[in-house]
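Would you kindly consider the sequence and fold I have copied below?
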Amino acid sequence: MKGLRSVVTGGAGFIGSNLVDHLVRIGHKVIVLDNFISGKKANLAHHKKKDVKIIRTDISKSKNLDKYFRRADYVFHLAGLAEIIPSIKYPKKYFNTNVLGTLKVVEAAKREGVKKLIYAASSSCYGSPKNFPTSEKEKIDIKHPYGLTKFLGEQLVLKYATNFNMPNISFRFFNVYGPRLNMSGQYSAVFGNFLKQRRTNKPLTIVGDGKQTRDFIHVDDLTNAFIKVAKSNLVNKIYNLGSGKETSINKIANLFGGKKKFIPKRPREPKRSLANISKIKKDIHWRPTITIQEGVKRLLKN
């Protein structure tokens, strides 16, 4: 895969910058498009200019994305607004970034004829699923503007794949954690809060009884899936990206260690989350390799 060119939208963010690291490691030249609202320059500071070109731009406002996509082999579209509560306050902002921004990215990728476009969707489209583990065939049950805008972005990506024969793929992320995790924001949820509390010697706050479970996937496993799918011949598919294991919040707190403090349960908080990942395992022989114990150990070393 040496000598290939990749564009990563949102490449200065938590997941985006980890993906950029992986792409550079396998010899790609990378263009990062980021508006630096939640992304950080420090996340990319270790890269040489010849490997990674960083462009400050807002995909939803950009007049000409084509020039950045020219001669690009792959486009990894991770730019977007990712928090649930602000999406309820500012739905229009979320629609502009996550839907219209995605439309601009897909249009530019289509015009430039990229080999593969991979979209970062969200498992929030399942809402409170009836079936566990939850497969890609689960009924869509959207609970908030964030979930809606990410799902509409996915619909655009897949409709373009069908109607224009585009090589598009959508990944529905479950709970992603790992280095450079934001201490605030959607991905901070449990890990970001616990890290912040540990660093400031405060007790770990656990919502409700802590028995609720989540499917946590390490960002390195996630980026491996991106690379494997990019290299594959797969197009017009949706894949869940999780670990396929559920872990209780109490277990995460125990791995972190220290004092705990239980706080009241949030309304409408799902009790369980567990991805069925058999489809991606079967199609590209990918499987997550980093256990939650190993992942937390790595995080606490940083």
